[in-house]
Amino acid sequence: MNTTLRYLHFANGTQRFLRLCYNCEKLSTCNFLKRCFNSSRVQQYATLGKKQKLHANIRHDEDYVDVREQLGEEDETVLGLYSGLKNHDRASLARAITLVESRHKKKKKQAQLLLMKILHDNMGEVAHSLSNQQTFRIGLSGPPGAGKSTFIEAFGKYLTGHGHKVAVLAVDPSSSTTGGSLLGDKTRMPELSCDSNAYIRPSPTGGTLGGVTRTTNEAVVLSEGAGFDIVIIETVGVGQSEFSVADMVDIFCLLIPPAGGDELQGIKKGIVEVADMVIVNKSDGDLVPAARRIQAEYISALKFMRTRSKVWKPKVTRISSFTKDGIPELWDTLCHYRKLMNESGEFVNRREKQLKVWMWNHIKDHIMDIFCEDQHVENKLPSLENLVIKGAITPGLAADLLLKEFMKKS
């Protein structure tokens, strides 16, 4: 196996971002991790004290980074939350998500330790049975007023009634003025929020684009670690191109209302090209003819789209969250999708891609944080801003000068 390690150095070499690129045609990342973590030939482990801690699962060879130096040892907070998650404690899940959302330096390290433990458990389960994927991540987006919360309420109750445990990560937009968020999605799901087999977590975007939060990936992993086999991510109802949630889920569903007012919406690529399923909601009463018409329009539009999968062509279905019509058929279609994707190996490929996107999202966030906190940049910024305001230099040139100032140290 060829392993490439690339380091990006910032500040005085104290901040490093590491990209691990595994290039192997015959061995998937999941099987590779299984070999590294569970193989009997791996003999070298790190034993910390009397307890077998997380670092006992890390190989000591050139392919791995010594995480002890970066994160330190586990503490009672991490061990307590991990134990609570393994016991399917909802209060522990709530505290764990709050932990990963924190920007406090110590809590960020605790969050990474907790996530590594959960990810290791999840990877072991996936590698043990790739053909029988136990968890299912569903992304849901759509325009405001499409009925996303009402649909999740009806769909979630159907799933819990059939023995599933459902976690709903509802994302609300944050105010660009005050930074606050209403977090009101849970109030629109009164029955599901009282269901013992469901967990609803509203979170603010915090200015993050794409309809998701900065820590949505972390919340998904923690929810799965707490025993929830179905995770639904409801976005804020963004525009036609901002679908970051598609890189976090196994299937991305676009929920639309009938009689949206623009018959050409079904042809616009930004909406449809990332959707694996288009769901026409509110197909009841007087809106049934309109729902049928919009369904036909989207079916026609999808014929001109390039599919993301080799084995699956996006489907268009009609449902009613009010009467529950079409919801059992929708779940059957989703199960068929999961079966096809598992058998073809695309399910695992998407999970691997999600991990890579997750890593690079963190790199981008950290680079921006380091750039903004740099003393040289901070000293130069006011004068350059004034020059931009006066029209003496362009914003692009000012950005280049700031970047050059930042890179002088490296």
UniProtKB/TrEMBL annotation:
Keyword Hydrolase: yes
Domain of life: Eukaryota
Gene Ontology MF term list: GTP binding; GTPase activity
InterPro entries hit by this protein: GTPase_ArgK, P-loop_NTPase
Reaction catalyzed: GTP + H2O = GDP + phosphate + H(+)
Any Pfam family the entry gives: MeaB
One term under GO cellular component: cytoplasm
Keywords from the named record: GTP-binding, Hydrolase, Nucleotide-binding
SUPFAM superfamilies: P-loop containing nucleoside triphosphate hydrolases
NCBIfam families membership: lao, PRK09435.1
Subunit-structure text: Homodimer. Interacts with MMUT (the apoenzyme form); the interaction is GTP dependent.
Biological role: GTPase, binds and hydrolyzes GTP. Involved in intracellular vitamin B12 metabolism, mediates the transport of cobalamin (Cbl) into mitochondria for the final steps of adenosylcobalamin (AdoCbl) synthesis. Functions as a G-protein chaperone that assists AdoCbl cofactor delivery from MMAB to the methylmalonyl-CoA mutase (MMUT). Plays a dual role as both a protectase and a reactivase for MMUT. Protects MMUT from progressive inactivation by oxidation by decreasing the rate of the formation of the oxidized inactive cofactor hydroxocobalamin (OH2Cbl).
Family per similarity comment: Belongs to the SIMIBI class G3E GTPase family. ArgK/MeaB subfamily.
Name the record gives this protein: Methylmalonic aciduria type A protein, mitochondrial
